[in-house]
Each structure stands twice: as structure tokens, then as C-alpha cells.
What does this fold into?
Amino acid sequence: MLPRSVPKCASGFTRSLPARVHARPFTTSPPRRDAIERDANGHIDIEKLLSNPSWSVTSLLPSKDHQPPTSGVSSKQLHHLLRLSALPPPKNAAEEAQMLSTLAAQLHFVKEIQKVDTAGMEPLRSLRDETAQGEREAELGMEALKGVLEQEEIRGTHHRRIRRKPGGRDGEECEKWDPLGTAGRRMGRYFVVEGEKAG
Amino acid sequence: MQSSTIRTAPSHFARALQCTSPGLIRCPRPCIVAKWLQSRNLTTATPAAQEAIPLRKHLKDEAKRKKADAKRDGNTASTKSGADPRLEKWELTVGIEIHAELNTACKLVSSAPAEVLETDNGGMANSRVAMFDAALPGTQPQFQVATLLPALRAAIAFGCEVQRKSGWDRKHYFHWDQPNGYQITQYYQPFAKDGCLVLDASDGVPALDMQGADRLRIGIKQIQMEQDTAKTTNVGSSTYHVDLNRAGVPLIEIITLPQIHSPQTAAAVVRKIQAVLKSVDSCVIGMELGGLRADVNVSVRERGTSGVGSSYSGVSGLGQRTEIKNLSSFKAVEDAIIAERDRQITVLEAGGVIEGETRGWTLGATETTRLRGKEGEVDYRYMPDADLPPLVIGQDLVKHLTSTLPTLPDQLQQDLQDEYNLSLKDAKTLIDLDNGDRLDFFLRTVHSVTAELSISSQAQIGKMVGNWVLHELGGLLTTHQRSWDDVRITADELRDILVCLHQKRITTRVAKQLLADLFQREPAPAARPCVEQLIETGNLRLRPLSEEEYRDLARRIMDESPEMVKAVREKGQKGKVMWFVGQMVRQGEEGTVEPEQARATIERLMGG
It folds into this structure.
């Protein structure tokens, strides 16, 4: 993890990193002002710099010497969450206690992650081409819709109406598969599901 | 003795009956008698003077009084049921969310077809299902570009701002009609925002809502694209059949601002939205076929207050709202809102509090039923969909669609009234009939008649052509039970008939006969002589009769039916003059008698 401001270094490593890396503050604790010592030529002693870790991944989990972590999640909330996720409820109190303590550890992890300053940043949704060129290529304009517009006709001479010609599916491969092949229970052409008694 | 026929009338009344003449004995309904007795504070020991009043007069008076009472009660009953005084105190606010199926060939994010084609077995259940629709593990969605076209047209028709970039989000909930466990929708960034819908009194908005203005503007908050769910049918007590054909079909959701203040306006808004969507070919399946569904949000507040301070999208000071889901007809929308409004007012007036819950409505019910309370509120855990890239819409496409957008119904209606002098009712009918084909026919006919007659303004004959296209042709269609697609009359033939009529070369009656004749002929050109030929061969040209010929004909008919003459002359039944006119037209040679002149002649002869 690099401190906020990284001066030039003999290896030239930092210069090759993209600018965004420099912009992100990675430290979870404020940067130590006294940390960076330079010799007479302005070079940093890398070994010395890296000898004292300033952060460890173990901080993401609750420390083992403390009590089993409590997260403030009640039993009622646990059941609500399990219901939302369609997971089975705990069979006995011991299993519930186990679930609660796992959940507490997970919440501790999340809280540590949330300490990172992400002000003004859009969350990453997926790895895409976010350049201007990429956006231009993804744009749906007249070119992209040309085939679709050709699938329409005008009806009427004086009162002109647009009508889509039926069945113009661009030659999409008709996936030849049997949807009902995956059915656990079926009746004719339908999937069969058991629900609550109606009414 | 008469008392045996009067089972429950008091004995002294039976004596009153004996006073009247035998022919007028009637069985009085006990209730009238009892009521009369009670109202008159009569006891069994009535003074003899009362019995002398004739029964018939009493009964008549009683009936009159009962009628007057009922009328008074009727008026107060309607106010008691909550129409007037409660609504003076409480104001209704409604917001509507409409889900409409887009007119596309394919589904939103999968490659399966969205429509039933006759060629393949697309009508069978579970035959138009892509692997992603069935949520097979590892399948990915892919946005089908063709679905953008009708969605954009809908957004432009409502005057929305189309967003260049919009996103796709997941709305998670578990249900067997949603195999993926989430619905793909546009929660955070819809593709169109801030439109509006304009209504006026002719759309069904009550005068109170118009508040003296010409038009009512309802704001549209946003329009977003989303997926439809599968279809489930209940068979047996708890068994359901699932058909995934509909899963993934693209919908647009149109969300209005809560600016609607009466149930009739709400129904009018839904009707108008359906009409606009149909006119731009975005959503062509109507509400009655299940292609359009409405959810309404209803709240009430005391007039002049700000309710409980709720607000929605900039409209503030509202009461607590409840949502009624899945209304599937215009009447259901209106009735459900009325029922919910009344229920909320009743609760609030009794000092209770409205909970924000989801309710349902069934046809024929009197009150909405609770589907889900606050504790059952679903946490949808919205998150951006990681598989679908953001939707980027090009400005060139939006411009092109805006410039080629078909005329919207409002504008069409106005044009028909202004340029062709049609009445509002006729204009509306013409626009709705036969998917616009009738209107096209009308316009073609008007233009060609105008050209033929070299008239400068089309308003002069617009009304006449409108009558012929709507009422004459419409009448023939109903009589022969044909649909517009089978109509063989061409615009040219109608033009010829109307031109001849306008130039007074034939009478109206003959024109109608020509129309009926041509209507029934085969479409082959050999079987359809032109109008001129028909007039020639049938000797239908108007040969106007002279004054004397009219008089002769009239006198002949008057001689044949002296009673009718007497009716008109002596009894003053002026309407019967038209009977004479009809007789003259029928008895005269075809195409000779003009009704106006015949009438004038008859009146002169009668009046003496």
C-alpha cells in the first residue's frame, strides 16, 4: 500500500503507475509524516520504509483474543435476513449462535472496508470500456437501429400510421432446446408448482 | 264481503271501502294505508268524518306524497353516501403507475420471440423461452436493441427528456413467475424523465377538476423499461401451472405525479395513455386484453391542510398513501379508487390512522382488500445489474423519431374539427374506428371531392363526407355484418356519388341507393360500373318536377288517404306531413321527387 504522496524513487516504479492509483488514498490510518526519510540525494531507503508494516489484513477480522464478537444483530433480524435470502432457518440455539457469530465477523469485515474514503466516487459495476471511444461504440443511434426501422411500414396515405411488420427477428438463432426438460414436475406443457392454499 | 280480500287493513277501513262504488274497489297496499294512518296520527277510533273521503283520492294523494318523499330521500341518500359533504372536507390525491407491453418482436434481454407467430407452434405454453428466461445457471442477458424503438417513441409522445445514459438494475424477490430471482428494471436511472399528459373535458375529466381551465396537465415523473413476469394459472387448491412464454417480455412503466384529484380523472388518464401509446405503435394491446395494467396510489387529506406531510417527487403535503395493485380495466380503476377513498375517509373520520399498505381489488367488490402490510413489506435490495452495460441512446435517433412521430390523437382531433368542420363526437369516433383506416378513407375522399369540385375550403364538405363515411357506410357495415377490411367501396366511388349529390344531379335517396348497390358488388373491376353508368342505366338522374306535377302528385295521395288529411288539417298533427312526403317520394318516379319541395307543396295544400 502506497502512502498518499510518493516522491520520485530510484526504481522509477511509481512513475509508471497510472495517475488514478496516486489519487486514491489507500491508507486506513493517517500517513505518518515522519515515515519517509531521505538521504542526502533525496533517495528513500526502501528497506527501511517497508520494514514496519502500517497495516495488516488481519485487521479485517475481529481479533481472536477478544470475546466472540457480537454484532448487535438480533435473532429476529437474523430470521428476517434468512427469509429474504431464501435460506433455511437454524435448527437449534447452538446453530443460531454460530450463525450470529459468523455474521458478526462478517459485519466487522464490512465495517473495516467501509472506513475507506470513497467520497465522490462511482461504484464499479463491472469491468467495461469507460473511455469516450468505448461510449461512442456502445451508443445506440440510427446506425444500430437501422435494421429495426426497416422492419416497419407506413399504413395509410393521408393518415399515416407506423406499423411494425410481424416476425422480423433479425435471424436470431432459435435456441432449440426443451425448457421443460429441466422441470422437476410438469403437466403437459406447464411447470407445476405447489403454493399456499389459494383463498 | 270485501274484507276477506283485504288481509291486513284495519277493520274500520274495510268499512271505508264499502262506501266506494264496486267498480273502483282495489286492494290497497297495507303499507300505504298504515303509513297514511300513522302520518295522520289516526287511531282506531277515527272520527266518522275521515271515512267519508273517497278512497281513490286518498290513495292518489298517498302515492304522490310517497313519490315526493322518495325524491327527497334520494337526494339526501346520495349525499349521505359520501359524495358531497365528505368530499367538501376531504381531498383525494391519486398517482398512477402503468405497465404496458411493448410492441416488439423479441424480449428485453433474451433472444426468444415476444409475439405469437402463426408459422411455428408459438401458441403452445413454454415454447418461446430462452435459456436466460428459464434462469439456467451460467446464462447471461443481452439487451435486444429492437426494444428501444417503441420505448423511445412512447417517451417522445409524452414529451419526456430522453436520458443519454441510463442503467439496468435488479429488483430481487422470490416468486415462481420470476425464475432468476430478480427482475431487470431501471430503478436508479430511467431512460426518460419529466414528461406530461394533457387532458381536457372531452376526455372525461369532471368540471370540478378542470377548475375553469381549458386543459389539465398531469406530470409524468419517468418512464422506464423492465421485464414482465411469467404467467401462472391456479389449478386446483394450491397447485399452479407456470408458463414462461411471457417471462422477459419488455414492458414500460409510466409513473405519473400525484396530481390527479378524482376517480374519473384517473380513469381518463389511463384511457388517454393507452390511446397515445396505440397511436405511436408502442403498445398496441389494450387493457381489456391484458396488455396494459395500472397500479394506483391513493391518499386523502383535509382540504387546506398538508395531510401527514408525505411527499412524492416534489409534490408535498399529502396524506399517507396506499397502493392498489393490478387493476385491469378502466372501470376497475375508477371503482377501486372510489372504494379506497371512502374507506380512508371513514377511517380518518373515526380518528384512525391510515397505514401504508398494499391492497387489491376484485371486480364487483365494494372495498379493497389488504394484500400486504408494512411488516410484510418486501426489501427489494436494488443493485445495478453487473451483466448489462449501461444504455446509451444517440441524439440522432431521438431526433429522427421525433420528426417522424405519427400525429397524436389530440392534434388529430383538433385538426378534424378545425379543418373539416366535424363535431367533437364524430372526430373522436373517426379516430378510434378500424385502427385509423376509416379516418384515412375519410381524408382521401374529402381531398378528392374538394379537388373535383374545386372548392377552396374543405370545411364546407367535410361535415357531409364525415356523415357519409361514419353513418351511411357504418350503417351498411352493420346491416350486412361486414368489417371494414371487407369494404369494397373505394374512395373514388364515394367521391363520384358525393359530387353528383352536391351538384344536385341526384337526390339523397338515390345516392344512398347507389352506395348500397356498390357496397354489395364484387370487387372485380368488371362487376363495378362507375357511378355515372349506374345513374344512366338506372335512370336515376334527378329530373325535377314542375310545380304542377308536385301538386298533382300531392293531390292524388291526399285523395287516397283522407283520414291522414283530416289528421293534419283538423287535429293539427303536423308531423304527419312527413308521411305524405314519404308517400310522394315512393310513388313518384325514382330520382324525381325532392323531399324539401314535396313538403312545401303538401304544406301549401294543407294549409289552404
Notes: Helices of chain A lie at 13-16, 19-23, 46-51, 75-84, 93-114, 132-138, 146-150. Chain A touches chain B through 53 residues (CB under 8 Å). Strands of chain A lie at 152-155, 161-164, 186-187, 190-194. Residues 1-23 of chain A have pLDDT under 50 and may be disordered.
